[in-house]
Amino acid sequence: MIKVTKQALWSGRFDGEADSSTLRFTSSLDVDSVLAFYDAMGSLAHVRMLKEQKIIPPEDADRIINGLISIVWMMERGEFDIDDSLEDIHTNIEFRLTELIGPAGGKLHTGRSRNDQVATDLRMYLRDVILEAMIDIDALILSLLKAADEHKETIMPGFTHMQHAQPVTLAQHLLAHVFRLSRDADRFFDALDRMDSCPLGSAALAGTVYPIDRDMTAKMLGFRSPTQNSMDAVSSRDNVSETAFCASMTAIDMSSLCEELILWSSQEFGFIEMDDAYTTGSSIMPQKKNPDIPELIRGRTGNAVGSLVSLMVMMKGLPLSYNRDLQEDKGAVMDSMNTISDCADMLSKVISTMKVNKDAMLAATEKGFINATDLADYLVAKGVPFREAHGIVGEAVRYCIKNKRRLEDLTLKEFKGLSASIGNDVYDRLPVKACVERRGSYGGTSPASATAQVREAAAAIMEREERIKQEARLIESCWDDLLKEV
């Protein structure tokens, strides 16, 4: 039970105290304590603006500024004690400030509401965790790129419908995941751009009567501009939902990769072996080496998607403007972002330490007539219409299945029996290495194409890295300015 030790900020209208069960049920401290630093920084920007606009006396503003800075350093040292009897982190900070500097602390809340305060804190938090997530995603991409660069000539079956389709390189397969994840990282930047406006100063929903300068507070907190509509600013959580979607999409893409790693590490495939450091054994079967990391990532994808669904359902049908339902947004998006950062980090370790069985991959290409399309393309080059070529090769496959042969094992006489257009040069086209090397179209599976893809993907990472550094420098500069004592 939460023990009531101080009056809530909203208690002036009430004669009696809230029941302890109400305080327990409505408390958000278990989640919003994560926002403590951002809340203090938002308050610093707000009070500096109040001072500049002469809304509160400069001596009171200075006391508040220095008091807040002291609280920030307490947080940094782990010395800021949270009072569980207070309903949220915002109240905790304001009461602690008043304890430090006296009644002047009560002037901090002038011209704002917890509604715009929370919305601002959350955007600052999301900005940071998005940048951190992109760093983790790019680290995963780099591990995939390194593996792809090492395996540009490692040939394996390419699959459609989980059936052998055409020969590809391991590089091509890994690069497909690289470009998926690269889009995921870019998608986070898109979300970041759309949340780059500051709700602070929107107050409860209608703005404020005080002559505040919202451009000033937005700039001090590293935002491009203030939000354009006060009701929209305090009630919208599309930025939270979009972030959760980006996290869900990233988790889904990682899960797809994990599914393949799990299959490839099985005895049936034997394409890879995961390092002992990232696998576990069985409590009863001593021979087992289980791919637990990829399995857990695959499982935790459900948590990320579930958080997105929770947010979308929570937002459905909410009337403007603020409703207490919105308190439930933080836990969902925080869980999503923590999940993908942790999963990306672990998956990167799995990829960078796995052993690739090139021989097993190459041997697998001997099954399933994986060079059949190349035989059809050969016939087309000889002037046979593709639909007719398709039928000829289909007949050849049936013949091989019946006689337990491979296409490349057929004699020239047998080939001639299928089509007079087939000559001795067909044997140059059927080896899987030739099939791979001939696919040099942009984005194709040839080693030369893989080299170009690696180069493009690496350039995209460098471009993101530079922007992440720029964003981080801007935020750090804002914090440095806000933490200057007066």
Could you describe the 3D structure shown?
This protein is mainly alpha-helical and 486 residues long. It has 3 domains: 11-110, Fumarase C, Chain B, domain 1; 128-209 and 224-364 and 453-482, Up-down Bundle (Fumarase C, Chain A, domain 2), CATH 1.20.200.10; 372-430, Ribonucleotide Reductase Protein R1, domain 1 (Orthogonal Bundle). The protein contains 19 helices and 6 strands. A two-stranded antiparallel ribbon has the order 1-2. The two termini are 41 Å apart. Mean pLDDT is 94; it is low at 1-5.
Name a few traits of the molecule.
single chain, 486 residues, mainly alpha, Fumarase C, Chain B, domain 1, Fumarase C, Chain A, domain 2, Ribonucleotide Reductase Protein R1, domain 1, two-stranded antiparallel ribbon, two-stranded parallel sheet, 19 helices, 62% helix, disordered N terminus
Q: Could you please say which CATH topology of the largest domain applies here? A: Fumarase C, Chain A, domain 2
Largest sheet: 2 strands, antiparallel
Please state the structural category: mainly alpha
Distance between the termini: 41 Å
Rg, rounded, reads 30 Å
Please state the average pLDDT score: 94
- Number of helical runs? 19
What is the CATH-assigned architecture of the largest domain? Answer: Up-down Bundle
Percent of residues in beta strands? under 5%
Q: Which CATH top level class of the largest domain fits? A: Mainly Alpha
Q: What count of structural domains? A: 3
Give me the CATH superfamily of the largest domain: Fumarase/aspartase (Central domain)
The rough form would be described as: elongated
The order of strands across the largest sheet is 1-2
Helix content: 55-70%
Unreliable spans are 1-5
Q: How many E strands?
A: 6
Oligomerization status of the protein chains: single chain
Sequence of secondary-structure elements = HHHHHHEEHEHEHHEHHEHHHHHHH
